[in-house]
Amino acid sequence: MLRMTNLSKVYRTHMIETHALRGFEIAVAPGEFVTVTGPSGSGKTSFLNIAGLLEEFTAGEYVLDGVNVKGLDDDARSRLRNEKIGFIFQGFNLIPDLNLFDNVDVPLRYRGFNAAERRERIEDALARVGLASRMKHYPAELSGGQQQRVAIARALAGSPRLLLADEPTGNLDTQMARGVMELLEQINAAGTTILMVTHDPELAVRTTRNVHIIDGQVSDLVRKGPSLATATATV
Ligand SMILES: Nc1ncnc2c1ncn2[C@@H]1O[C@H](COP(=O)(O)OP(=O)(O)OP(=O)(O)O)[C@@H](O)[C@H]1O
């Protein structure tokens, strides 16, 4: 689904260089549900934003669903992003003045679907997240967990191959977080690849893979943990 090779991201502000990612390597197969963990400032959001073509990288290679991202101009990047990727954010990012139907419609308007096609997609997506009966409601009339479900519906309506979620349960209480996680697991089981940044260790162990980032690099400490322990035990 995606492969990054020797990728780096350097932010330059006020003459200061911050190396958010360095020698970053990852390959994610279609159908995986990968959680991304790591300390604050380690590069998780930078990784997700680059994966989602929201930010450019400084050096290295990134191939998304067979497309080498490096040579693409802004239009081609936007097209690729709209077609392949759905986003979910910690703060839901719904538009308060639009009802749920119109919120889910926002990204579809960029995709060239006609009105009938859009309506079908919106109704399907809201039904998938259990909110079909609330289409005329506004975000403020919903709980946090329901608002995140609308954001998930908005991300799904365009049938993305890849869903990127940055702390999607970070603003939710435990029960609502569990509900959102179960929904993401259903979406993954139906074939969508998911990358999810989380600080919640319980969520991190539920998925098919956890990638731990430290200082802008994928740390293999987590993966090597058990074998290191075994090695120590046998010395
Ligand atoms: N726009 C920016 N300009 C300058 N530096 C930035 C910018 N965005 C991120 N950084 C820096 O890049 C590094 C990685 O940031 P990033 O947001 O990717 O970390 P993170 O792991 O997502 O952190 P957190 O868990 O706190 O959200 C940090 O040192 C951060 O200060």
From TrEMBL:
CDD domains per the UniProt record, alphabetical: ABC_MJ0796_LolCDE_FtsE (cd03255)
Swiss-Prot/TrEMBL GO biological process terms: response to antibiotic
Gene3D superfamilies: P-loop containing nucleotide triphosphate hydrolases
An example Gene Ontology CC term for this record: plasma membrane
Keyword vocabulary terms for this entry: Antibiotic resistance, ATP-binding, Cell membrane, Membrane, Nucleotide-binding, Transmembrane, Transmembrane helix, Transport
Domain (ABC transporter): residue spans on this chain: 2-234
GO molecular function: ATP binding; ATP hydrolysis activity; transmembrane transporter activity
Family assignment from sequence similarity: Belongs to the ABC transporter superfamily. Macrolide exporter (TC 3.A.1.122) family.
Protein name: ABC transporter ATP-binding protein
Organism, scientific name: Massilia forsythiae
